[in-house]
C-alpha cells in the first residue's frame, strides 16, 4: 500500500491549480488582444502612427495596470496552492466566483482603455478587482480555518488580512474616482497597502473585542 492516500475524485489540488493557471493565462492574453491596432491609413507614416499611439495611450496604461494586478493575484494564489495538501468542497466552490472575476477583468480594462478618466469605467474595474481580491481572502480564510493548507494555518489567515486590506483599498478607489479622474493611480499602491494594511487587520483580529492591547500603555522599566 502506498503511504500517501489518493485525493477524492474531483478534488485534486494539482488539477485545480492547473485550471486556475490556464484561466489567468487566458485573461492576461486577452488584455493584449483588446488593444486597438492601427489600420493601413494610420500606419502609413511616422506622423500618423505616432498620433495613433498617442491617442491610444489610455489603452496601454490600462493594459499595464491590469496585467500587473493580475500577475500579483496569480502569484499570491500560486503561493497559496503550494500550501494546499487537500481540497475541501467549500474551498473548491469558492474558485468559481474567483475565476469568473479573473475572466471578466479584460472587459472593464477595455472600458478604461477607451476612456481612462471615466469614473464609471474606473468604478467597474475597481469593483471587479475588489470582488476578486475578496474572493482570494475567503480562499485563504478557508485554507487556514478548516485545514486544507499545510504548515501554519495562522500564517495563511494572516495572509488573508493582506487580501482584505487590498480589497478595501479598491473599494475606496472606486469612490475616489467620482471626484478625482486619476484615481487609478491609487491601484499602484496595492503592494504597500497589503503589507501595512494587512498587518493592521491581523493585529485587530488578535485583540479580543472589549480588551485593550496588553502592550498599550507599557512603560519602560528602570
Automatic annotation (TrEMBL):
Keyword Repeat in annotation: no
Membrane topology: Multi-pass membrane protein
Keyword tags: Ion channel, Ion transport, Membrane, Potassium, Potassium channel, Potassium transport, Transmembrane, Transmembrane helix, Transport
Subcellular location: Membrane
Top-rank taxon, per record: Bacteria
A GO cellular-component term linked to this record: membrane
Keyword flag Transport: yes
One of the record's GO molecular function terms: proton channel activity
Annotated catalysed reactions: K(+)(in) = K(+)(out)
Alphabetized InterPro entries for the sequence: TMEM175-like
One Pfam family, short name: TMEM175
Transmembrane region(s): 16-33, 57-74, 94-114, 166-190
Family from the record: Belongs to the TMEM175 family.
Protein name as annotated: Putative membrane protein
Species assigned in the record: Streptomyces eurocidicus (Streptoverticillium eurocidicus)
Organism classification: Bacteria, Bacillati, Actinomycetota, Actinomycetes, Kitasatosporales
Amino acid at each position: 500500500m502506498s503511504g500517501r492516500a489518493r485525493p477524492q475524485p474531483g478534488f485534486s489540488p494539482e488539477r485545480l491549480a492547473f485550471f486556475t493557471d490556464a484561466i489567468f493565462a487566458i485573461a492576461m492574453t486577452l488584455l493584449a488582444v483588446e488593444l486597438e491596432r492601427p489600420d493601413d491609413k494610420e500606419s502609413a507614416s511616422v506622423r500618423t502612427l505616432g498620433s495613433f499611439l498617442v491617442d491610444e495611450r489610455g489603452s496601454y496604461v490600462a493594459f499595464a495596470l491590469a496585467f500587473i494586478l493580475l500577475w500579483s493575484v496569480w502569484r499570491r494564489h500560486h503561493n497559496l496552492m503550494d500550501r494546499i495538501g487537500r481540497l475541501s468542497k467549500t474551498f473548491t466552490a469558492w474558485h468559481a466566483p474567483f475565476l469568473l472575476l479573473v475572466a471578466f477583468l479584460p472587459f472593464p480594462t477595455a472600458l478604461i482603455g477607451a476612456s481612462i478618466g471615466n469614473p464609471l469605467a474606473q468604478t467597474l474595474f475597481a469593483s471587479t478587482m475588489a470582488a476578486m481580491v475578496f474572493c482570494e481572502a475567503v480562499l485563504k480564510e478557508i485554507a487556514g480555518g478548516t485545514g486544507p493548507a499545510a504548515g501554519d494555518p495562522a500564517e495563511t489567515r494572516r495572509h488573508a488580512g493582506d487580501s482584505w486590506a487590498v480589497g478595501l483599498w479598491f473599494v475606496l478607489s472606486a469612490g475616489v474616482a467620482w471626484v478625482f479622474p486619476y484615481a487609478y493611480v491609487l491601484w499602484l499602491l496595492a503592494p504597500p497597502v497589503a503589507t501595512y494594511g494587512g498587518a493592521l487587520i491581523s493585529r485587530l483580529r488578535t485583540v479580543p473585542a472589549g480588551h485593550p492591547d496588553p502592550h498599550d500603555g507599557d512603560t519602560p522599566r528602570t
